[in-house]
Specification:
- The complex is a heterodimer of chains A (271) and B (212).
- Chain A is mainly α.
- Chain A is 72% helix and 3% strand.
- Chain A has 2 domains: 4-151 and 245-269, no CATH class; 156-229, no CATH class.
- A two-stranded antiparallel sheet of chain A has the order 1-2.
- In chain A, helix 3 packs antiparallel against helix 6.
- Chain B contains 7 helices and 2 strands.
- Chain B has 212 residues and is mainly alpha-helical.
- Chain B has a single domain (5-203), classed as Arp2/3 complex 21 kDa subunit ARPC3 (Orthogonal Bundle), CATH 1.10.1760.20.
- In chain B, helix 3 (71-78) crosses helix 6.
């Protein structure tokens, strides 16, 4: 995951109408869309809402002028665990259906149910839509902008300051992680090399983890000391200036929110 | 163990968020008052380090790779379960919002499972076993294992309550899987603690072998 840090941020630093959009709006639209798709009960209505929201993602992604390959690559990285959870569903009954009809039978009494397949597909739609909005948000918004947007939206300074610190140093440790991995490779050490004794690999990894821990702690000490030198104290907070929204941004926000809310309500109320 | 959003109905996700927020507020209070002065930046930088630690590929005996959580290690070294909560909250926020690893609505549950359970189970099993046996490395091993295993059990129960994963299958699969990779988490926690105790014993809140 850490390998993709620069990949994500590189795309977030590009420019387009979506990139320039205020981060508060992108954050709120993302949260609204995720809330909408997750709040829709586990029924086939999720397909319709999913189609509307995914269409919104496609339009915004096209407007961001980012390659679809970026989206697909990021989606592929996130998918595995979710796909495992979804794939498992087809073999089990769940409390959202009353009757289950087997459509395939396997040895050891394993059966695939039509209703479970439908349930799995509903989960898949929810998964893809919610993940797509996150990918869109982080691919078109710098981390620092996201942090400032959170502060402007009322995230307490107790959160913004440590979060800001973490975001800043995550790149330092991504570099350090890369160097550690190069060093391991230089010494022909591969933690996944099964020809090496398992205990030896575990010990080396343990020492590496301990070393990263100490280095991050020491970096924290240096940072803390230098902040003290610059007047850091108990009441220090991250300075986030106010920023007015443009008329276009407000219009977009109102339109996107109306689309999300109206489509959710209309699809939910439809018999 | 990063639960995605689609596994929870919204109401349950929000309930977990409320519980998580209580622990986050307590963790912030710990960072401000117990860490000595205002060392919040130090813990925040440490969280970035834990993020890197989680990126390390850990070999799993049957051929795949996994990742460490690190909540128990943070709690043991900094001497408080809230260290695990604080650090994992920051890590999970970045993982969820930037990388899409773990959901937004499910983030409360993820913070409870990995940060709260990881931190509290890790820290208190470490102090209890250290005081009983005097062997802090064995205690760190058990703490690392228990923090992961109990997190997985809780995760299976939460998914069963949500109705998206059957309880028996969840306990069987997630319990068995994490009982095994918990041994790796425990082993690495013990080795890492040994290195820290050897290289920088001063940063250990409770010196090696001494219980609270």
């Amino acid at each position: 995951m850490i390998d993709d840090l620069y990949y994500i941020e590189k795309h977030a630093y590009r420019t387009s109408i979506v990139h320039r959009l205020d981060a508060r709006i992108k954050l709120l639209v993302t949260l609204a869309a995720i809330l909408a798709i997750i709040a829709m009960p586990y029924s086939t209505k999720v397909y319709d809402l999913g189609a509307v929201l995914f269409a919104l993602v496609v339009v915004l992604w096209a407007a961001s002028r980012l390659s679809p390959v970026v989206y697909l690559r990021r989606l592929a990285l996130i998918m595995p665990f979710g796909i495992f959870l979804i794939g498992f569903q087809v073999f089990v009954k769940n409390p959202y259906y009353e009757v289950f009809h087997p459509i395939a039978t396997f040895p050891f009494g394993i059966e695939v149910y039509a209703e479970s397949v439908q349930f799995a597909s509903i989960l898949l739609v929810k998964f893809i839509v919610s993940i797509s909005f996150i990918i869109l948000l982080s691919s078109t918004t710098r981390m620092q902008d996201l942090l400032e947007a959170s502060g402007r939206l009322g995230l307490p300074r107790e959160f913004t300051l440590p979060l800001g610190m973490m975001i800043r140093y995550i790149f330092v440790f991504a570099d350090m992680f890369g160097k550690i991995r190069s060093t391991m490779e230089t010494r022909c050490f591969d933690p996944l090399d099964r020809t090496l004794p398992y205990r030896y690999r575990l010990r080396q990894l343990g020492y590496t983890v301990g070393m990263i821990f100490i280095r991050s702690y020491e970096q924290g000490e240096r940072t803390y000391t230098s902040m003290l030198c610059r007047g850091y104290g108990a009441n220090t907070s991250l300075q986030i200036r106010g920023k007015a929204l443009g008329a276009g941004e407000v219009s977009f926000f109102a339109g996107a929110l109306a689309l999300i809310v109206l489509s959710t309500v209309l699809i939910y109320l439809r018999p | 163990m990063h639960i995605p959003d689609f596994m929870f109905p919204v109401a349950q996700g929000l309930v977990y968020w409320v519980i998580a927020l209580i622990f986050i507020v307590l963790a912030l209070r710990w960072a401000r008052h117990s860490m000595g002065e205002e060392k919040v930046p130090l813990v925040a930088v440490l969280a970035a380090g834990i993020f890197a630690i989680q990126a390390l590929n850990i070999p799993i005996p049957w051929g795949t790779s996994g990742h460490m959580v690190g909540a128990a290690l943070a709690a043991i070294v900094l001497g408080s379960p809230f260290a695990g909560v604080f650090v994992l909250t920051l890590v999970l926020l970045v993982q969820g919002v930037i990388f899409g690893d773990g959901g937004i609505i499910a983030m409360g549950a993820n913070i409870i499972n990995m940060g709260v359970i990881g931190g509290f189970v890790g820290y208190y099993s470490y102090t209890a076993i250290t005081s009983m046996t005097g062997n802090s490395y064995a205690a760190a091993f058990v703490a690392g294992w228990a923090s992961l295993f109990i997190s997985a059990i809780l995760c299976a129960v939460e998914l069963a309550i949500a109705g998206t994963f059957p309880l028996v299958a969840g306990l069987t699969f997630m319990g068995t899987y994490h009982a095994v990779i918990g041994l790796i988490e425990g082993g690495i926690t013990a080795f890492a603690l040994y290195l820290i105790a050897s290289a920088r014993p001063d940063i250990l809140e409770h010196p090696r072998g001494v219980s609270t």
